[in-house]
Amino acid sequence: MTNQKQPVRPAGGPGHPGGGNMMMMGEKPKDFKGTFRRLLRYLRPRKQALTAVLLAAILSTVFMIAGPKIMGIAITELFEGAFAKFRGVPGAAIDFERIGNILLLLAGLYLVSSLFNYVQQYIMSGVAQKTVYDLREDVNLKLEKLPLKYYDGKAKGETLSRVTNDIDTIGSTLQQSVTQFITSFVTIIGILIMMLSISPVLTLISLVSLPVSIFAIRPILKRSQKYFADQQRTLGELNGHIEEMYTGHPVVKAFGRERRAVEQFDAVNEELYEAGRKAQFISGIIMPMMFFIGNISYVLISVVGGILVTQRAISIGDIQAFITYTRQFTQPITQTANIANVIQSTVAAAERVFELLDEQEEVAEVTTARLESAKGAVTFEHVDFGYGEELLIRDMDISVEPGQTVAIVGPTGAGKTTLINLLMRFYELNGGVIRIDGLDSRKMSREDLRTTFGMVLQDTWLFNGTIRDNIVYGKPSATEEEIIAASSAAYADHFIRTLPEGYDTVLNEEASNISQGQKQLLTIARAILADPPIMILDEATSSVDTRTEIQIQ
Protein backbone atom coordinates (compact mmCIF):
# COMPACT_ATOMS: atom_id res chain seq x y z
CA MET A 1 0.00 0.00 0.00
CA THR A 2 1.12 3.59 -0.52
CA ASN A 3 1.85 5.91 2.36
CA GLN A 4 -1.63 7.34 2.03
CA LYS A 5 -3.25 3.96 2.52
CA GLN A 6 -4.14 2.54 5.89
CA PRO A 7 -5.55 -1.00 5.78
CA VAL A 8 -7.48 -2.00 8.85
CA ARG A 9 -7.70 -5.75 8.38
CA PRO A 10 -10.00 -7.73 10.66
CA ALA A 11 -9.23 -11.42 10.62
CA GLY A 12 -12.76 -12.71 11.09
CA GLY A 13 -16.34 -12.46 9.92
CA PRO A 14 -19.28 -10.60 11.36
CA GLY A 15 -19.10 -10.30 15.07
CA HIS A 16 -22.40 -8.92 16.19
CA PRO A 17 -25.60 -10.66 17.20
CA GLY A 18 -27.90 -8.62 15.05
CA GLY A 19 -28.93 -11.14 12.45
CA GLY A 20 -31.83 -13.49 12.21
CA ASN A 21 -35.29 -13.48 10.72
CA MET A 22 -37.84 -11.39 12.53
CA MET A 23 -41.31 -11.75 11.08
CA MET A 24 -44.17 -9.47 11.95
CA MET A 25 -46.70 -11.18 14.16
CA GLY A 26 -50.07 -11.53 12.45
CA GLU A 27 -52.88 -9.44 13.81
CA LYS A 28 -55.68 -7.34 12.43
CA PRO A 29 -54.97 -3.65 11.76
CA LYS A 30 -54.23 -1.92 15.04
CA ASP A 31 -55.66 1.40 13.86
CA PHE A 32 -58.05 0.86 10.97
CA LYS A 33 -59.36 4.42 10.83
CA GLY A 34 -55.94 6.01 11.23
CA THR A 35 -54.38 3.81 8.54
CA PHE A 36 -57.30 4.43 6.19
CA ARG A 37 -57.08 8.21 6.66
CA ARG A 38 -53.34 8.08 6.10
CA LEU A 39 -53.88 6.15 2.87
CA LEU A 40 -56.42 8.74 1.73
CA ARG A 41 -53.79 11.47 2.17
CA TYR A 42 -51.94 10.00 -0.79
CA LEU A 43 -55.02 10.77 -2.91
CA ARG A 44 -55.24 14.44 -1.91
CA PRO A 45 -52.91 15.72 -4.67
CA ARG A 46 -55.31 14.21 -7.21
CA LYS A 47 -58.51 15.91 -6.04
CA GLN A 48 -59.31 17.30 -9.50
CA ALA A 49 -58.85 13.92 -11.16
CA LEU A 50 -61.00 12.25 -8.50
CA THR A 51 -63.66 14.91 -9.03
CA ALA A 52 -63.62 14.11 -12.75
CA VAL A 53 -63.91 10.40 -11.91
CA LEU A 54 -66.88 11.13 -9.66
CA LEU A 55 -68.58 13.26 -12.34
CA ALA A 56 -67.99 10.63 -15.04
CA ALA A 57 -69.31 7.92 -12.73
CA ILE A 58 -72.44 9.92 -11.99
CA LEU A 59 -73.14 10.60 -15.67
CA SER A 60 -72.42 7.01 -16.67
CA THR A 61 -74.69 5.68 -13.94
CA VAL A 62 -77.49 8.18 -14.64
CA PHE A 63 -77.66 7.24 -18.31
CA MET A 64 -77.54 3.55 -17.39
CA ILE A 65 -80.27 3.90 -14.77
CA ALA A 66 -82.59 5.67 -17.20
CA GLY A 67 -82.52 2.58 -19.45
CA PRO A 68 -85.06 0.34 -17.65
CA LYS A 69 -87.56 3.21 -17.34
CA ILE A 70 -87.38 3.94 -21.06
CA MET A 71 -87.54 0.23 -21.83
CA GLY A 72 -90.68 0.10 -19.67
CA ILE A 73 -92.26 2.81 -21.81
CA ALA A 74 -91.58 0.75 -24.92
CA ILE A 75 -93.04 -2.39 -23.30
CA THR A 76 -96.11 -0.47 -22.18
CA GLU A 77 -96.58 0.92 -25.68
CA LEU A 78 -96.27 -2.56 -27.17
CA PHE A 79 -98.60 -4.15 -24.58
CA GLU A 80 -101.32 -1.50 -24.81
CA GLY A 81 -101.31 -1.56 -28.63
CA ALA A 82 -101.46 -5.35 -28.70
CA PHE A 83 -104.15 -5.47 -26.00
CA ALA A 84 -106.30 -2.86 -27.75
CA LYS A 85 -105.96 -4.76 -31.03
CA PHE A 86 -106.87 -7.99 -29.24
CA ARG A 87 -110.05 -6.36 -27.84
CA GLY A 88 -111.00 -5.20 -31.32
CA VAL A 89 -110.77 -1.46 -30.66
CA PRO A 90 -111.31 0.36 -33.99
CA GLY A 91 -108.06 1.74 -35.44
CA ALA A 92 -105.99 0.02 -32.75
CA ALA A 93 -102.46 -0.90 -33.82
CA ILE A 94 -98.98 -1.21 -32.42
CA ASP A 95 -96.99 1.98 -33.02
CA PHE A 96 -93.75 0.36 -34.16
CA GLU A 97 -92.29 3.71 -35.24
CA ARG A 98 -92.60 5.14 -31.75
CA ILE A 99 -91.24 1.92 -30.24
CA GLY A 100 -88.32 2.07 -32.69
CA ASN A 101 -87.54 5.67 -31.70
CA ILE A 102 -87.64 4.68 -28.03
CA LEU A 103 -85.23 1.80 -28.65
CA LEU A 104 -82.86 4.10 -30.58
CA LEU A 105 -82.93 6.53 -27.67
CA LEU A 106 -82.21 3.61 -25.34
CA ALA A 107 -79.22 2.51 -27.46
CA GLY A 108 -77.89 6.07 -27.45
CA LEU A 109 -78.16 6.27 -23.67
CA TYR A 110 -76.26 3.02 -23.22
CA LEU A 111 -73.58 4.19 -25.68
CA VAL A 112 -73.09 7.49 -23.81
CA SER A 113 -73.05 5.60 -20.51
CA SER A 114 -70.29 3.31 -21.79
CA LEU A 115 -68.30 6.33 -23.00
CA PHE A 116 -68.40 7.99 -19.58
CA ASN A 117 -67.54 4.67 -17.95
CA TYR A 118 -64.45 4.46 -20.18
CA VAL A 119 -63.45 8.02 -19.19
CA GLN A 120 -63.93 7.11 -15.53
CA GLN A 121 -61.71 4.02 -15.79
CA TYR A 122 -59.07 5.86 -17.82
CA ILE A 123 -58.69 8.71 -15.33
CA MET A 124 -58.80 6.40 -12.31
CA SER A 125 -56.05 4.18 -13.73
CA GLY A 126 -53.79 7.24 -13.86
CA VAL A 127 -54.73 8.26 -10.32
CA ALA A 128 -54.06 4.75 -8.98
CA GLN A 129 -50.70 4.37 -10.69
CA LYS A 130 -49.49 7.85 -9.68
CA THR A 131 -50.56 7.23 -6.08
CA VAL A 132 -48.74 3.89 -5.96
CA TYR A 133 -45.76 5.58 -7.63
CA ASP A 134 -45.62 8.14 -4.81
CA LEU A 135 -45.95 5.40 -2.22
CA ARG A 136 -43.09 3.42 -3.77
CA GLU A 137 -40.97 6.58 -3.90
CA ASP A 138 -41.57 7.20 -0.19
CA VAL A 139 -40.71 3.58 0.63
CA ASN A 140 -37.56 3.73 -1.50
CA LEU A 141 -36.41 6.95 0.17
CA LYS A 142 -37.18 5.40 3.54
CA LEU A 143 -35.09 2.31 2.79
CA GLU A 144 -32.16 4.60 2.00
CA LYS A 145 -32.48 6.29 5.39
CA LEU A 146 -32.86 3.16 7.52
CA PRO A 147 -29.87 2.15 9.64
CA LEU A 148 -28.00 -1.09 9.09
CA LYS A 149 -29.52 -2.60 12.22
CA TYR A 150 -32.93 -2.61 10.52
CA TYR A 151 -31.64 -4.82 7.71
CA ASP A 152 -29.79 -6.99 10.22
CA GLY A 153 -33.03 -7.61 12.08
CA LYS A 154 -35.40 -8.17 9.15
CA ALA A 155 -35.58 -10.97 6.62
CA LYS A 156 -35.09 -9.72 3.07
CA GLY A 157 -38.23 -11.48 1.89
CA GLU A 158 -40.30 -9.76 4.57
CA THR A 159 -39.14 -6.32 3.44
CA LEU A 160 -39.57 -7.24 -0.23
CA SER A 161 -43.12 -8.42 0.49
CA ARG A 162 -44.01 -5.03 1.94
CA VAL A 163 -42.42 -3.16 -0.96
CA THR A 164 -43.98 -5.35 -3.70
CA ASN A 165 -46.99 -7.45 -2.65
CA ASP A 166 -48.49 -5.02 -0.14
CA ILE A 167 -48.10 -1.99 -2.41
CA ASP A 168 -49.51 -3.98 -5.34
CA THR A 169 -52.54 -4.81 -3.18
CA ILE A 170 -53.06 -1.11 -2.53
CA GLY A 171 -52.70 -0.33 -6.24
CA SER A 172 -55.22 -2.99 -7.26
CA THR A 173 -57.75 -1.65 -4.77
CA LEU A 174 -57.36 1.92 -5.99
CA GLN A 175 -57.59 0.80 -9.61
CA GLN A 176 -60.69 -1.35 -9.28
CA SER A 177 -62.50 -0.96 -6.00
CA VAL A 178 -62.59 2.85 -5.77
CA THR A 179 -64.37 3.29 -9.09
CA GLN A 180 -66.62 0.34 -8.28
CA PHE A 181 -67.51 1.90 -4.94
CA ILE A 182 -68.33 5.27 -6.53
CA THR A 183 -70.44 3.62 -9.21
CA SER A 184 -72.22 1.43 -6.67
CA PHE A 185 -73.01 4.39 -4.41
CA VAL A 186 -74.35 6.52 -7.27
CA THR A 187 -76.30 3.53 -8.61
CA ILE A 188 -77.98 2.95 -5.25
CA ILE A 189 -79.07 6.60 -4.99
CA GLY A 190 -80.21 6.80 -8.63
CA ILE A 191 -82.14 3.54 -8.55
CA LEU A 192 -83.81 4.53 -5.29
CA ILE A 193 -85.06 7.74 -6.90
CA MET A 194 -86.36 5.86 -9.95
CA MET A 195 -88.06 3.23 -7.78
CA LEU A 196 -89.82 5.92 -5.71
CA SER A 197 -91.03 7.60 -8.88
CA ILE A 198 -92.64 4.32 -10.01
CA SER A 199 -94.16 3.03 -6.73
CA PRO A 200 -93.43 4.04 -3.12
CA VAL A 201 -95.15 0.86 -1.88
CA LEU A 202 -92.93 -1.47 -3.89
CA THR A 203 -89.90 0.65 -2.92
CA LEU A 204 -90.70 0.15 0.77
CA ILE A 205 -90.82 -3.62 0.25
CA SER A 206 -87.49 -3.53 -1.57
CA LEU A 207 -85.82 -1.37 1.10
CA VAL A 208 -86.72 -3.79 3.88
CA SER A 209 -84.03 -6.13 2.54
CA LEU A 210 -81.31 -3.47 3.02
CA PRO A 211 -81.13 -3.37 6.85
CA VAL A 212 -81.61 -7.14 6.91
CA SER A 213 -78.60 -7.54 4.61
CA ILE A 214 -76.43 -5.16 6.66
CA PHE A 215 -77.39 -6.93 9.87
CA ALA A 216 -76.50 -10.28 8.32
CA ILE A 217 -73.08 -9.38 6.85
CA ARG A 218 -71.72 -7.14 9.62
CA PRO A 219 -70.42 -9.93 11.91
CA ILE A 220 -68.92 -11.69 8.88
CA LEU A 221 -66.90 -8.60 7.94
CA LYS A 222 -65.46 -8.31 11.45
CA ARG A 223 -64.42 -11.94 11.50
CA SER A 224 -62.84 -11.92 8.04
CA GLN A 225 -60.61 -8.94 8.94
CA LYS A 226 -58.35 -11.06 11.15
CA TYR A 227 -57.84 -13.72 8.48
CA PHE A 228 -56.98 -11.18 5.80
CA ALA A 229 -54.26 -9.79 8.11
CA ASP A 230 -52.96 -13.32 8.71
CA GLN A 231 -52.93 -13.90 4.96
CA GLN A 232 -50.67 -10.86 4.37
CA ARG A 233 -48.35 -11.85 7.24
CA THR A 234 -47.87 -15.44 6.13
CA LEU A 235 -47.34 -14.30 2.55
CA GLY A 236 -44.40 -12.22 3.81
CA GLU A 237 -43.04 -15.24 5.71
CA LEU A 238 -43.31 -17.41 2.61
CA ASN A 239 -41.46 -14.85 0.51
CA GLY A 240 -38.73 -14.62 3.15
CA HIS A 241 -38.30 -18.40 3.26
CA ILE A 242 -38.18 -18.74 -0.54
CA GLU A 243 -35.64 -15.91 -0.82
CA GLU A 244 -33.41 -17.52 1.82
CA MET A 245 -33.60 -20.98 0.30
CA TYR A 246 -32.92 -19.63 -3.18
CA THR A 247 -29.89 -17.51 -2.26
CA GLY A 248 -28.52 -20.22 0.06
CA HIS A 249 -29.29 -23.14 -2.24
CA PRO A 250 -25.70 -24.46 -2.40
CA VAL A 251 -25.53 -24.54 1.42
CA VAL A 252 -28.87 -26.34 1.62
CA LYS A 253 -27.59 -28.92 -0.86
CA ALA A 254 -24.23 -29.28 0.86
CA PHE A 255 -25.78 -30.10 4.23
CA GLY A 256 -28.56 -32.25 2.81
CA ARG A 257 -31.29 -30.01 4.20
CA GLU A 258 -33.56 -30.17 1.17
CA ARG A 259 -36.20 -32.18 3.01
CA ARG A 260 -36.17 -29.81 5.98
CA ALA A 261 -36.41 -26.80 3.64
CA VAL A 262 -39.40 -28.38 1.91
CA GLU A 263 -41.00 -29.13 5.28
CA GLN A 264 -40.57 -25.51 6.36
CA PHE A 265 -42.03 -24.34 3.07
CA ASP A 266 -44.97 -26.73 3.44
CA ALA A 267 -45.61 -25.51 7.00
CA VAL A 268 -45.68 -21.82 6.00
CA ASN A 269 -47.57 -22.62 2.81
CA GLU A 270 -50.15 -24.56 4.83
CA GLU A 271 -50.54 -21.63 7.19
CA LEU A 272 -50.99 -19.29 4.21
CA TYR A 273 -53.51 -21.72 2.73
CA GLU A 274 -55.52 -21.87 5.95
CA ALA A 275 -55.51 -18.09 6.40
CA GLY A 276 -56.47 -17.51 2.75
CA ARG A 277 -59.11 -20.24 2.80
CA LYS A 278 -60.76 -18.92 5.94
CA ALA A 279 -60.61 -15.33 4.72
CA GLN A 280 -62.12 -16.16 1.35
CA PHE A 281 -64.65 -18.64 2.76
CA ILE A 282 -65.99 -16.28 5.40
CA SER A 283 -66.09 -13.34 3.00
CA GLY A 284 -67.61 -15.62 0.33
CA ILE A 285 -70.62 -16.26 2.54
CA ILE A 286 -71.71 -12.69 1.90
CA MET A 287 -72.72 -13.26 -1.72
CA PRO A 288 -75.11 -16.20 -1.09
CA MET A 289 -76.68 -14.37 1.84
CA MET A 290 -77.22 -11.25 -0.25
CA PHE A 291 -78.71 -13.27 -3.10
CA PHE A 292 -81.03 -15.13 -0.71
CA ILE A 293 -82.35 -11.96 0.90
CA GLY A 294 -82.63 -10.31 -2.54
CA ASN A 295 -84.62 -13.22 -3.97
CA ILE A 296 -87.12 -13.07 -1.10
CA SER A 297 -87.59 -9.37 -1.80
CA TYR A 298 -87.93 -10.13 -5.53
CA VAL A 299 -90.75 -12.63 -4.89
CA LEU A 300 -92.68 -10.16 -2.70
CA ILE A 301 -92.32 -7.41 -5.30
CA SER A 302 -93.54 -9.70 -8.08
CA VAL A 303 -96.65 -10.69 -6.11
CA VAL A 304 -97.57 -7.17 -4.98
CA GLY A 305 -96.68 -5.71 -8.40
CA GLY A 306 -98.93 -8.23 -10.15
CA ILE A 307 -101.81 -7.21 -7.90
CA LEU A 308 -101.20 -3.51 -8.65
CA VAL A 309 -101.13 -4.20 -12.41
CA THR A 310 -104.49 -5.98 -12.25
CA GLN A 311 -105.87 -2.98 -10.36
CA ARG A 312 -104.51 -0.61 -13.02
CA ALA A 313 -102.48 1.15 -10.30
CA ILE A 314 -99.30 0.67 -12.29
CA SER A 315 -98.50 -0.09 -15.93
CA ILE A 316 -97.00 -3.37 -17.09
CA GLY A 317 -93.93 -1.53 -18.36
CA ASP A 318 -93.37 0.14 -15.00
CA ILE A 319 -93.57 -3.16 -13.11
CA GLN A 320 -91.04 -4.63 -15.54
CA ALA A 321 -88.77 -1.60 -15.01
CA PHE A 322 -89.20 -1.84 -11.23
CA ILE A 323 -88.24 -5.53 -11.20
CA THR A 324 -85.16 -4.64 -13.23
CA TYR A 325 -84.32 -1.87 -10.76
CA THR A 326 -84.77 -4.31 -7.90
CA ARG A 327 -82.21 -6.64 -9.43
CA GLN A 328 -79.88 -3.71 -10.08
CA PHE A 329 -80.43 -2.40 -6.55
CA THR A 330 -79.10 -5.53 -4.86
CA GLN A 331 -76.06 -5.76 -7.15
CA PRO A 332 -74.34 -2.51 -6.01
CA ILE A 333 -75.09 -3.39 -2.39
CA THR A 334 -73.41 -6.76 -2.92
CA GLN A 335 -70.48 -5.06 -4.64
CA THR A 336 -70.16 -2.61 -1.76
CA ALA A 337 -70.08 -5.52 0.68
CA ASN A 338 -67.34 -7.21 -1.37
CA ILE A 339 -65.41 -3.93 -1.55
CA ALA A 340 -65.56 -3.78 2.24
CA ASN A 341 -63.72 -7.12 2.31
CA VAL A 342 -61.14 -5.85 -0.17
CA ILE A 343 -60.63 -2.75 1.95
CA GLN A 344 -59.94 -4.97 4.97
CA SER A 345 -57.12 -6.66 3.06
CA THR A 346 -55.89 -3.34 1.68
CA VAL A 347 -55.77 -1.65 5.07
CA ALA A 348 -53.86 -4.63 6.47
CA ALA A 349 -51.37 -4.26 3.61
CA ALA A 350 -51.21 -0.47 4.00
CA GLU A 351 -50.51 -0.80 7.71
CA ARG A 352 -47.53 -3.04 6.96
CA VAL A 353 -46.21 -0.47 4.48
CA PHE A 354 -46.73 2.39 6.94
CA GLU A 355 -44.96 0.40 9.65
CA LEU A 356 -41.97 0.36 7.33
CA LEU A 357 -42.31 4.09 6.70
CA ASP A 358 -42.48 4.71 10.47
CA GLU A 359 -39.28 2.80 11.25
CA GLN A 360 -36.66 4.81 13.09
CA GLU A 361 -34.24 6.39 10.64
CA GLU A 362 -30.54 6.99 10.95
CA VAL A 363 -29.53 9.77 13.32
CA ALA A 364 -29.91 13.08 11.50
CA GLU A 365 -26.69 14.51 10.17
CA VAL A 366 -25.22 17.59 11.80
CA THR A 367 -22.53 18.56 9.30
CA THR A 368 -20.14 21.07 10.84
CA ALA A 369 -16.87 19.57 9.61
CA ARG A 370 -15.67 18.62 6.14
CA LEU A 371 -12.73 16.39 5.30
CA GLU A 372 -11.18 17.74 2.12
CA SER A 373 -8.30 15.29 1.73
CA ALA A 374 -7.87 12.65 4.43
CA LYS A 375 -4.35 11.79 5.52
CA GLY A 376 -5.41 8.59 7.25
CA ALA A 377 -5.27 9.23 11.00
CA VAL A 378 -7.97 7.25 12.85
CA THR A 379 -8.60 7.58 16.57
CA PHE A 380 -11.12 5.82 18.86
CA GLU A 381 -11.49 7.80 22.10
CA HIS A 382 -13.31 6.19 25.05
CA VAL A 383 -15.74 4.42 22.71
CA ASP A 384 -18.76 2.60 24.20
CA PHE A 385 -21.08 0.51 22.04
CA GLY A 386 -23.69 -2.23 22.23
CA TYR A 387 -26.24 -3.62 19.78
CA GLY A 388 -28.80 -3.64 22.56
CA GLU A 389 -28.94 -2.30 26.09
CA GLU A 390 -25.88 -4.28 27.15
CA LEU A 391 -22.57 -2.75 26.10
CA LEU A 392 -20.15 -4.93 24.14
CA ILE A 393 -17.37 -2.33 23.98
CA ARG A 394 -16.42 -0.20 26.98
CA ASP A 395 -14.00 2.73 27.06
CA MET A 396 -11.99 1.55 24.03
CA ASP A 397 -9.07 3.62 22.71
CA ILE A 398 -7.33 3.00 19.35
CA SER A 399 -4.89 5.27 17.57
CA VAL A 400 -3.68 4.65 13.99
CA GLU A 401 -1.24 7.01 12.28
CA PRO A 402 -1.30 7.94 8.53
CA GLY A 403 0.40 5.33 6.38
CA GLN A 404 0.33 2.74 9.14
CA THR A 405 -0.90 -0.79 8.40
CA VAL A 406 -2.85 -2.28 11.28
CA ALA A 407 -4.13 -5.84 11.63
CA ILE A 408 -6.94 -6.46 14.10
CA VAL A 409 -7.02 -10.10 15.16
CA GLY A 410 -9.12 -12.03 17.60
CA PRO A 411 -11.53 -14.93 17.93
CA THR A 412 -14.79 -15.05 16.04
CA GLY A 413 -17.36 -12.80 17.66
CA ALA A 414 -14.76 -10.61 19.36
CA GLY A 415 -16.06 -7.53 17.54
CA LYS A 416 -13.65 -7.04 14.63
CA THR A 417 -16.39 -6.33 12.10
CA THR A 418 -18.14 -4.23 14.72
CA LEU A 419 -15.20 -1.83 14.59
CA ILE A 420 -15.73 -1.47 10.83
CA ASN A 421 -19.45 -0.78 11.35
CA LEU A 422 -18.60 1.94 13.86
CA LEU A 423 -15.86 3.39 11.71
CA MET A 424 -18.19 3.60 8.69
CA ARG A 425 -20.95 4.92 10.97
CA PHE A 426 -23.30 2.07 10.08
CA TYR A 427 -24.13 2.07 13.81
CA GLU A 428 -24.10 5.00 16.22
CA LEU A 429 -21.87 5.07 19.29
CA ASN A 430 -23.27 4.81 22.80
CA GLY A 431 -20.42 6.91 24.07
CA GLY A 432 -17.04 8.35 23.13
CA VAL A 433 -15.92 9.64 19.77
CA ILE A 434 -14.22 8.43 16.59
CA ARG A 435 -11.98 10.96 14.86
CA ILE A 436 -10.68 11.01 11.29
CA ASP A 437 -7.66 13.34 11.04
CA GLY A 438 -8.80 14.89 14.31
CA LEU A 439 -12.38 15.56 13.13
CA ASP A 440 -15.37 14.00 14.90
CA SER A 441 -16.92 11.56 12.41
CA ARG A 442 -20.40 12.41 13.70
CA LYS A 443 -19.94 16.02 12.58
CA MET A 444 -19.13 14.93 9.03
CA SER A 445 -21.71 13.97 6.44
CA ARG A 446 -22.04 10.23 5.98
CA GLU A 447 -21.21 10.64 2.30
CA ASP A 448 -17.92 12.44 3.02
CA LEU A 449 -17.04 9.93 5.72
CA ARG A 450 -17.70 6.84 3.64
CA THR A 451 -15.96 8.10 0.50
CA THR A 452 -12.86 8.36 2.65
CA PHE A 453 -12.80 4.57 2.99
CA GLY A 454 -12.41 1.77 0.52
CA MET A 455 -13.86 -1.44 1.91
CA VAL A 456 -13.44 -5.02 0.69
CA LEU A 457 -15.42 -7.55 2.69
CA GLN A 458 -15.22 -11.31 2.94
CA ASP A 459 -18.78 -11.49 1.58
CA THR A 460 -18.50 -10.21 -1.97
CA TRP A 461 -21.22 -8.12 -3.56
CA LEU A 462 -21.52 -7.92 -7.34
CA PHE A 463 -24.58 -6.86 -9.28
CA ASN A 464 -26.10 -8.09 -12.51
CA GLY A 465 -24.08 -6.37 -15.22
CA THR A 466 -20.75 -6.46 -16.99
CA ILE A 467 -17.44 -6.90 -15.19
CA ARG A 468 -16.52 -3.38 -16.28
CA ASP A 469 -19.69 -1.97 -14.69
CA ASN A 470 -18.89 -3.72 -11.41
CA ILE A 471 -15.30 -2.46 -11.30
CA VAL A 472 -16.20 1.21 -12.00
CA TYR A 473 -19.01 1.14 -9.39
CA GLY A 474 -17.02 3.40 -7.04
CA LYS A 475 -15.67 5.64 -9.84
CA PRO A 476 -18.05 5.84 -12.82
CA SER A 477 -15.79 8.34 -14.65
CA ALA A 478 -12.80 5.98 -14.77
CA THR A 479 -11.00 5.57 -18.09
CA GLU A 480 -10.25 2.24 -19.73
CA GLU A 481 -6.58 2.59 -18.78
CA GLU A 482 -7.49 3.15 -15.11
CA ILE A 483 -9.81 0.12 -15.15
CA ILE A 484 -7.09 -2.13 -16.57
CA ALA A 485 -4.48 -0.74 -14.15
CA ALA A 486 -6.72 -1.39 -11.13
CA SER A 487 -7.57 -4.89 -12.39
CA SER A 488 -3.86 -5.63 -12.92
CA ALA A 489 -3.04 -4.42 -9.40
CA ALA A 490 -5.70 -6.80 -8.07
CA TYR A 491 -4.35 -9.62 -10.30
CA ALA A 492 -7.78 -9.84 -11.94
CA ASP A 493 -6.83 -8.67 -15.44
CA HIS A 494 -5.51 -12.06 -16.52
CA PHE A 495 -8.58 -14.10 -15.70
CA ILE A 496 -10.88 -11.37 -17.08
CA ARG A 497 -9.16 -11.54 -20.46
CA THR A 498 -9.61 -15.32 -20.55
CA LEU A 499 -13.39 -14.89 -20.46
CA PRO A 500 -15.22 -14.95 -23.82
CA GLU A 501 -16.30 -11.30 -23.61
CA GLY A 502 -13.47 -10.03 -21.42
CA TYR A 503 -14.44 -6.90 -19.49
CA ASP A 504 -17.84 -6.97 -21.22
CA THR A 505 -18.71 -10.37 -19.75
CA VAL A 506 -22.12 -10.11 -18.11
CA LEU A 507 -22.37 -11.46 -14.58
CA ASN A 508 -25.67 -13.09 -13.73
CA GLU A 509 -27.78 -12.06 -10.75
CA GLU A 510 -25.82 -14.17 -8.27
CA ALA A 511 -22.50 -13.80 -10.16
CA SER A 512 -22.34 -17.60 -10.15
CA ASN A 513 -20.67 -17.72 -13.57
CA ILE A 514 -17.30 -16.88 -11.95
CA SER A 515 -15.60 -18.43 -8.90
CA GLN A 516 -15.67 -17.03 -5.37
CA GLY A 517 -11.99 -16.13 -5.57
CA GLN A 518 -12.53 -14.26 -8.83
CA LYS A 519 -15.38 -12.34 -7.20
CA GLN A 520 -13.01 -11.19 -4.46
CA LEU A 521 -10.44 -10.07 -7.03
CA LEU A 522 -13.09 -7.95 -8.73
CA THR A 523 -14.11 -6.33 -5.44
CA ILE A 524 -10.43 -5.59 -4.69
CA ALA A 525 -10.05 -4.05 -8.16
CA ARG A 526 -13.15 -1.94 -7.49
CA ALA A 527 -11.68 -0.64 -4.24
CA ILE A 528 -8.28 0.07 -5.84
CA LEU A 529 -9.91 2.01 -8.69
CA ALA A 530 -11.83 4.18 -6.21
CA ASP A 531 -8.42 5.09 -4.70
CA PRO A 532 -9.65 6.01 -1.18
CA PRO A 533 -7.29 7.48 1.45
CA ILE A 534 -8.04 4.62 3.88
CA MET A 535 -8.52 0.95 2.93
CA ILE A 536 -10.40 -1.58 5.04
CA LEU A 537 -9.89 -5.27 4.27
CA ASP A 538 -12.15 -7.70 6.10
CA GLU A 539 -10.80 -11.13 5.06
CA ALA A 540 -10.72 -9.68 1.56
CA THR A 541 -8.52 -12.47 0.17
CA SER A 542 -10.00 -15.41 2.07
CA SER A 543 -11.03 -17.14 -1.19
CA VAL A 544 -7.86 -16.24 -3.12
CA ASP A 545 -4.90 -18.60 -3.41
CA THR A 546 -1.91 -17.86 -1.16
CA ARG A 547 0.46 -16.79 -3.97
CA THR A 548 -2.00 -14.27 -5.41
CA GLU A 549 -2.78 -12.99 -1.90
CA ILE A 550 0.89 -12.24 -1.26
CA GLN A 551 1.20 -10.51 -4.63
CA ILE A 552 -1.87 -8.34 -3.97
CA GLN A 553 -0.57 -7.33 -0.55
From the structure above, extract its key features:
3 domains, two-stranded parallel ribbon, elongated, 553 residues, ABC transporter transmembrane region fold, 17 helices, alpha/beta, four-stranded antiparallel beta sheet, 64% helix, disordered N terminus, Rossmann fold
What does this 3D model show about the protein?
The chain has 553 residues and is an alpha/beta fold. The chain has three domains: 8-16 and 363-451, P-loop containing nucleotide triphosphate hydrolases (Rossmann fold, 3-Layer(aba) Sandwich), CATH 3.40.50; 42-357, ABC transporter transmembrane region fold; 456-552, P-loop containing nucleotide triphosphate hydrolases (Rossmann fold, 3-Layer(aba) Sandwich). The protein has helices spanning 32-41, 47-86, 96-145, 148-152, 156-198, 200-247, 249-254, 258-284, 286-310, 316-357, 416-423, 446-451, 467-471, 480-489, 493-498, 516-530, 546-552, and strands spanning 8-10, 378-385, 393-400, 406-408, 431-436, 439-440, 453-456, 465-466, 506-507, 534-537. The strands form four sheets. It has a four-stranded antiparallel beta sheet with strand order 3-2-5-6, with no helix packed on it. A two-stranded parallel ribbon has the order 1-4. A two-stranded parallel ribbon has the order 7-10. Residues 1-27 have low confidence and may be disordered.
How do you describe this structure in short?
With 553 residues, the protein is of the alpha/beta class. The protein is built from 17 helices and 10 strands.
